[in-house]
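Notes from hallway chat w/ T.B., transcribed later so I don't forget. T.B. wanted the structure written out for a chain they're using in a teaching module, and asked if we could keep both sequence and structure tokens in one place. Agreed to drop them here.
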Amino acid sequence: MLRNLLSAARWLPVERAEAHCDIPCGIYDPITAKIAAQTVQKMVLRIQALPQSGANETPQQRSDRENKLARYTQVKEEHATLCKRELDILWHDYFNPTHLQRFPDVHTTFWQAAKLASKCKQEVNMDAAKQLVGEVDKIAGMFWATKNVNDWKDTVADVRFGA
């Protein structure tokens, strides 16, 4: 059967179809990666702000602190993974060789962002979290430039992040 299909394929005219995503939907936006990266940063901030355990800590206070730490850590790791997944979609489904001509460092930038997201999963590291947000912003700038938005800025980033 397979042999017959392969033989028939040689004689039938076949048009090559190309799509930049699996559906293709054509809808891309790095904002999901940005929100995920900011969530990682916010969870690091909250983890670092947790009170230290002490001799005067009640069992309820210890339990509350430990529960918050567990929740903050889980959210931090989930959003670091989400950031990586969203960046991977942009990297593999959206950016193409034409974009590489304009942004020759696109692969390095995506690779660096993915590595930072992994580091953010492994550590409670504010510098890495801030760098991740910065790398996502670089990628977003490249992305929007491919759509002729050359001066893109995430003007609501500080409001979204909050205090």
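Follow-up for T.B.: The chain has seven helices and no strands. Might be a good example for the class.
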